[in-house]
Design a protein that fits this description.
Helix content is 47%, strand content 16%. The protein is an alpha+beta fold. The strands form four sheets. It has a five-stranded mixed sheet with strand order 5-7-8-6-9, covered by helices on one side. Helix 2 packs parallel to helix 5, helix 2 packs antiparallel against helix 8 and helix 5 packs antiparallel against helix 8.
Length: 403
Amino acid sequence: MAPKYAVVSLPLGAFDSHDKEDAISAISAAISSDNTTVLPFNVPEFKIGTLDALVQQADDLTKLEATAEAVVAKVAESLRTILNGDEDRLASYKMVNDKPTEQYLNNFTWNRIRYRADKPLGDLIDTLQKELLSVDNDVKSKLSQYNSVKTNLATLQRRQTWVAQPPIIYSGNLSTKSLTPIVDPSLLVQDSEYIETHLVVVPKNAKKDFLKSYEELAPMVVPRSAVQLAHDDEFILFAVATFKKHSAEFLQKCREQKWTPRQYKYVEGGREEEQRELDKVTNEERKVCGEALRIARTGWSESVMAWIHVLTLRVFVEAVLRYGLPLDYVSALVKTTPKLAPKVKAALDSQYSYLGGNAFGRDKRGRVTKDDAATSSEMAAAGFSTGEGHEYTAYVYYELEFP
C-alpha cells in the first residue's frame, strides 16, 4: 500500500523544552501509532512582506499546490500509459534526482541554488508556477505525439496478415485488412479486355448462400469462378470473375446481400512496400516511446520537486500567519497509511487542539470538538477562506499522497 504523508507545523511554545528535536519526539509520542514515522521537515526562513501580501500568497499557494498535485498525477498517468500499466517498471521510473520519491521526501532540503531563499516569496511562487506549466506542456506534447505514432502503427499492424498458401487463415478482419500480402496475383484475371476479377468478403455463416447464388447475381458471371483466397475468424475472401460490362451490377447486388466488395489493384512490389512502411513506423514508435519515457521520467522528478517546494512555502506562510514572529516553530513530516491517517489526525487534534482557541473545545467525555461558527468567524476576521474545501485545523497541517 502506498504511504500517505502529512506535514505538520507547531509553535515551539507548545513544547516544554523549546527544542526542535524534543518537539519531533513529542509529536511522535502524541501519535504513538504503528506504521507511522515522524521525521524533521526543514523549512527555511524566507523574506516576509506585509500581512496583506502574506494573506494573498497563502491563497495563491493553496491554488498552486492543487496545480502541482494535478501535474504530478497527469505525469504518473502518462508514464502508466506508455508502460502499458506495468507497475513494476512504473516504480523504477518514479525517481526524483535519481532517488526513490519516498527517499527524496524523507530527506528533503530546500534547493537554495534553484530557489534562492533571499528572493521575495512572490518571485518564488512565480518561478514554481512557470516550471509546473512547462513540465505539464512538455509531457502532454510528447505523449500526444507518442499516441499518434502508436495509433498509426496499430492501424498498419491490423492491416498486416500472415502469408501462407491459399486458403490462408488470418487473425484480423478481412473487411478492413490490406489485401496486398493476401492476394496471389496469379489467381486474378489481368489485362483482359472483357473479363475482370472482383474480391468479395462474405461472412462465414453466409458461405453456402454465396456459393449457391453468386452466379445468378448479375448477367455474365463466369461460372464456377469463385475461389476462396483466405478466411479469418469472421469472414471469407472470395475472388469472382465477371464480364466488365456487368461488373457494377454484380458489385451492387453483393452489397445488397451484405457482402463487402474490396477494391484491389495489383502493384508490383506492393507487398514489400507495405512491409517497409510497417518497419519504418515500428522504428519510429520505438524512438518516440523512448523519448516519451525520458520526458515523463524527467517530468515526474521535476513536478514532484516543485510540489514539495510549493508545499514548503505554504507551510512557511501559514506558520507565520498563525504563529507570528519571531519564527519560532517546528515542522515535521508524518508518514503513515491511508487507513491510519484519520487516527493520526485525531491524535494530533487531541494533543494540540487548544492552539485553535475558541474554535475547539471538548465534550463531556473529553473528546475534541470543533465550533464551526467560531471557526468561520475567526478565519473570516483573519482574512482566510472558509468555504467548501477549506477545513480549518488548530495548527498547520497538510496531507499529500503520491499517485
